[in-house]
Amino acid sequence: MEVTNDFVVLCLPPPSEDDLLFTEKKNLLSRKTIDLNFRVRVSLTHEEATHILDLIVQAARILHLNEIELYFIGDHESGMLNPRNELESLNLILFVINSLLPGAQADEVGVLLMLQAETINMIKCVGAKCDGGIITEEGNSDAEDRLLQWGQDHGVKTKLQLAHFEGAGRGAVASEDVVIGETVLEIPESLLICDNDVYKSDMFDIMEMSGINDETMLLLWSMREISNPKSKFKAYFEALPTEFNTGLSFGIIALTNLEGTLLVEEILQAKEHLRNEYEALQCKLLSNHPEVFEKELYTWECYLWACELWYSNSMKVVFSDGKLKTCLVPIAGFLNHSLVPHILNYGRVDSATKSLKLRVSRPCMRGEQCYLSYGNFSSSHLVTFYGFFLKGDNFYDVIPLDFDTPQTGCGDWSTHMVQGTWLSRSKDPHSYGLPDPLLSYLRTTLKDDDVGSSTQIPGHTDLTTETERAVLEMIISIFDPMMKNLDMPDDDDGSENPSWDVTLAMDFKARQKIIISSVLQSCYGGLQLLDGIESSNAS
User: What is the pLDDT of residues 43-62, one digit of tens each?
Assistant: First the structure.
């Protein structure tokens, strides 16, 4: 901390050079003339402290942008982008403030505490509207009780209780009030299921000689381990569901309902890949070693179940030896995902305690469902590999666009996408709710060279109605056929209560229609705007 002339200098860390978006973030900070060092006067009023905190938060938001967020944010007015980015940003600021407090002088403590309190209040506001879900079952099953007892016997420390929630299945609630930064679940490194367990098994040498990669080894090992009565992880495997109900298990009717969406291709390609992998394993390994890979344990159904287990429950964790491993984390894997999670960062084992500590980034009150972020995933990814998607605005629900024309003079973006236009942050009516990189690319590609006959857009010296019309009509030509495909009648299974996969498919399709409809409505609204400009110019 630096103190000069009654000022405290609060410094945010610069973007890491290891960050793949390092250059883009540096450029955005520069364009917005945002410094990462903030001079905070120790005699600030509450109103002044709130103002400078807003500036600090703007900088922190940029530091925590991911690629999709950076694509859509542009240079538009700052504000909360989405809960994930906001919680990351506010927790960074809180960390910096808390690190200054122990060494602060008496006259500095007041303003730091004021900033701390306001930051905590902003964090609470982010989660204020999050629905914790309705508990349908207070008690645990015998298998869940055995899992919790097994964890406790092996050093797990938790402030969570398992519960069942309407529409979401199993999850966890806080057994006591948990404050920001507090550990809600601590799991010894020895309980993380990873390749170390495979290396100790009698299967390893055979799989290694057959050239099987580590991730496939984990699949094959878990297919047998789940039936091992002496398994160290018996309590965990017994608590797992017999079916995961992900998109990989969708039936024909559900897939038919997804016609016209990119999700149907994603699921079909994933299923084909898994089937090919399984058949290759049969020829290369399973049929050659029946004494190790017992036929009844290695059916296609068992293989698909194991794939769904690892897709939906595995986590990437850096172990105490510094190695990044894919692992299953008992108990933690039962927490549900949310757009406004409590637990954001949990990917590194604490080297001092040799345990994985899950800390909350926003408060979780006793009896409240505690959410864990699975990652910045689109609804299509969540459906395919987890078997659900979230209600509400998922910032990562984007529709990618594929253009044949080379990208020239259009900034740093080589690929383009759209999201629901209601999420746009631009106040310029000629952004049409569409992202700047996409508009820049299309305007460059479709630019009208006959400037003399073009009508200039008021307030935009570089835009003409002719080029804008071509841009909007191009986008309409892409999305209008998509909408017509999605408008085809749904195909249910003939029952009053459609199966889980058909219901999920129809709900996802309805969500896609909302996004595409918003793009089309924005484009048609833009054409009306251009008509008005041309009419005004003609008169």
Answer: 889 899 999 999 999 999 99
pLDDT band at 450 (very low <50, low <70, confident <90, very high): low
Contact 366, 337 (CB under 8 A): no
Half-sphere exposure of 86 (CA within 13 A, CB side): 22
For the chain, domain boundaries: 2-127, 135-386, 399-538
Distance CA 58, CA 70 (A): 13
Tell me the C-alpha to C-alpha distance, in Å, between residue 57 and each of 91, 298, 359, 494: 10, 52, 21, 52
Sequence-ordered list of residues with C-beta below 8 angstroms from that of 99, at least 6 positions apart, any chain: none
Indicate the pTM of the whole model: 0.92
β-pair partners for 457: 460
pLDDT of residue 6: 85
pLDDT-derived band at 455 (thresholds 50, 70, 90) equals confident
Q: Which strands form 7-11's sheet, in the order they lie side by side?
A: 2-4, 7-11, 37-41
Residue 357 is given by DSSP the state E
The CATH number fitting domain 135-386, selected from 3.90.1410.10, 3.20.20.450, 3.40.50.300, 3.40.50.2030: 3.90.1410.10
Which residue, among 378, 442, 421, 475, has the nearest Cα to 68 in the 3D structure? 378
Provide mean pLDDT across the span 170-174: 93
Contact predicate 167/202, CB 8 Å: no
